[in-house]
Specification:
Elements lengths: L3 E2 L3 H21 L4 E6 L4 H17 L2 E6 L6 H13 L5 E4 L9 H4 L14 H8 L8 H12 L8 E5 L6 H10 L3 E5 L6 H5 L4 E4 L17 E4 L3 E2 L5 E2 L4 H4 L5 E2 L6 H22 L1
Length: about 280
């Protein structure tokens, strides 16, 4: 069987074209949309992603302030910066990059992000709006998975989707988005008994656990669709996913590549969210 590569590059390009035009329109009337990107780690994979975000913002006409608080930043320091940016009228959007310093959890600090500027949808209010089916910013990686499936015309209504990973930034919000598409969703995690049996029963498998090679050919059935959300640094320094791609190709009907799959769509959606936040704030 030929496994189709579910690239996100074409979709990301279309989203970016729209975002660039909207950013330009805002800049003509006032200042460029401005994103505050708050970083408190020294993680190589995170640094790679932050750099890609900054380049994307520049290409699209979005101003990006990167604030490096250091890998030893305290809860108080992170919350103070998030609150200050929330009150700053010149900042349209806020994103807090993970991972966070040792001893600091997203739960400790995310409530300090104003929901109207929370373009990655990580605050308790944003997540609550999603769970209730109300308007708000959705975690971009979760949204990217659904947008990628839609772009490649992979139906979700009535189908069984296994999501491997239950984080508040991917797994849980993705389950909500998939339910809204009328999928039947199973969320798997580290204590799921016989993971392979669960995922092999699914029509679509989404790997979002942050573990290199967690999902292999034995975890999927013939003709399943596999979406790889992982962005892990391999020993050779390359960015690789959660899926053992070589054992999945030839068995799966479709597989998203890493890099080039969910990643570019996630970045494109984040930038779109920044412009949306700017448009909303300037209408008020």
């Amino acid at each position: 069987m030929d496994t189709v590569s579910l690239s996100g590059k074409e979709l990301a390009a279309a989203i970016n074209a729209d975002t660039k035009a909207r950013a330009a329109a805002l800049t003509e009337d006032a200042a460029a949309p401005r994103l505050a990107l708050i970083v408190a780690n020294d993680d190589p994979a995170s640094a790679w992603y932050v750099n890609s975000l900054r380049k994307a913002a520049e290409r699209l006409g979005i101003a990006c302030d990167t604030v490096d608080l250091g890998a030893d930043a305290t809860v108080a320091a992170i919350r103070a910066e998030l609150s200050a940016r929330g009150e700053d009228r010149g900042t349209d959007a806020i994103m807090l990059q993970t991972p966070l310093p040792a001893g600091v959890t997203l739960d400790d600090v995310s409530s300090a992000i104003v929901a109207t500027k929370d373009v990655d949808g990580v605050s308790p209010l944003s997540l609550g709006l999603l769970a209730a089916g109300l308007d708000g910013f959705v975690p971009a990686t979760s949204e990217a998975v659904v947008e990628l499936l839609d772009h490649h015309e992979i139906p979700l209504a009535g189908r069984h989707v296994a999501v491997v990973g239950r984080s508040n930034i991917v797994g849980k919000p993705l389950a909500q988005l998939l339910l809204a598409k009328d999928a039947t969703v199973t969320v798997c995690h580290s204590r799921t008994a016989d993971l392979a049996a669960v995922t092999a029963a699914a029509d679509v498998v989404v790997a979002a656990a942050g573990r290199i090679g967690l999902i292999s050919g034995k975890h999927i059935r013939e003709d399943a669709v596999v979406i790889d959300v992982g962005t892990n640094e391999a020993p050779d320094g390359k960015i690789v996913g959660d899926v053992e791609a070589d054992s999945v190709r030839g068995k799966a009907a479709g597989l998203s590549p890493v890099p080039g799959g969910v990643g570019p769509v996630t970045t494109a959606l984040l930038m779109r969210h920044v412009v949306t936040a700017a448009e909303t704030s300037r209408q008020n």
